[in-house]
Amino acid sequence: MEQAWSELGFAQRALDITDSNLELVRQLAEIAAARYRVGSGRQQDVLRAQVTLTQLLDERLRRRAAIRTAEARLASLLDLPPESRFGRTEELGEKAPLPDLDPVLAHLEEESPRLQALAERVREAERRRRATQLEGYPDFDLGLGYRVRQKIPMDPVQGDDFISAGVVVRLPVNRAKWREKVAERDAELRHARAAYRQERARLRDAARAAFAALARADGQVELLETGLVPQAEQSLESNRAGYQVDKVDFLSLIDSQVSLLDAELRRLRAVADRREAFAALEAALGKELR
């Protein structure tokens, strides 16, 4: 559920970034056209600006389609009509620090609801197997009675009271059928144990993979927020200032704008990936970590 929510948040903010860059490129296109009209610019600059504008308009269409796709997926998970629309999602940023995975994995069997359910199936299979094995052993019935004779009128047999005891032994007759049933219970127990081991291994692998994705996204967010995005912003501002005084060509200016768009989208993608990886890790462990 949280992964679908994160994808919707990413799609919404990616559209915001695209719109913002589209407005900036429009401004650059107007500058290029104005310079061309007064003879200080080149026609190639105007054409390049128009091409970049067209590309961004196409990107905006894809971003809007991505929002609809994300909304449809979230609506399906919430059992809502496919045409449902959602408002603005909350901030995607997840500030929770990376958890220490080893201690959590050490207690996976005790804390995972999925493993606990499979462990109960193993215990139930063991109980059924023991009950079936006991069916193959002799069954004893012990009877004990006390007979009062002297005080019973019209008793044809006059005598003293007495105590009687008896033992009934039942032996299983169809041993072949019993052995087949025992073999069936053994197979059920093996299957239950194998299912438990497989699920435990799957959850451990899923947790490690999610943790690796979380660590990678965490590093990417740090790198992009403190490095690439600020650098791209500085490069764009420098090139805009240089273009206005004819020290930077228009191609470099447009390239710096495209680089900023790419850096911002990569940062946003890393932020969404970090949140989704946290959700995947919690789902594998069956435990909240934030």
Q: Descriptors for this entry?
A:
290 residues, mainly alpha, Outer membrane efflux proteins (OEP), two-stranded antiparallel ribbon, 7 helices, 72% helix, 6% strand, rod-shaped
Notes on the protein architecture:
This protein has 290 residues and is mainly alpha-helical. The chain has two domains: 90 residues; 146 residues, Up-down Bundle (Outer membrane efflux proteins (OEP)). Helix content is 72%, strand content 6%. The protein has seven helices and two strands. A two-stranded antiparallel ribbon has the order 1-2. The protein starts with a helix and ends in a 5-residue tail after the last helix.
- Cα(first) to Cα(last) distance is 16 Å
Tell me the strand percentage band.
5-15%
Helix/sheet category: mainly alpha
Rg computed from alpha carbons, rounded to a whole number of angstroms: 38 Å
How is the biggest beta sheet arranged?
Answer: 2 strands, antiparallel
- How does CATH name the architecture of the largest domain? Up-down Bundle
Give the strand tally: 2
Question: What is the overall pLDDT average?
Answer: 86
Overall helicity: over 70%
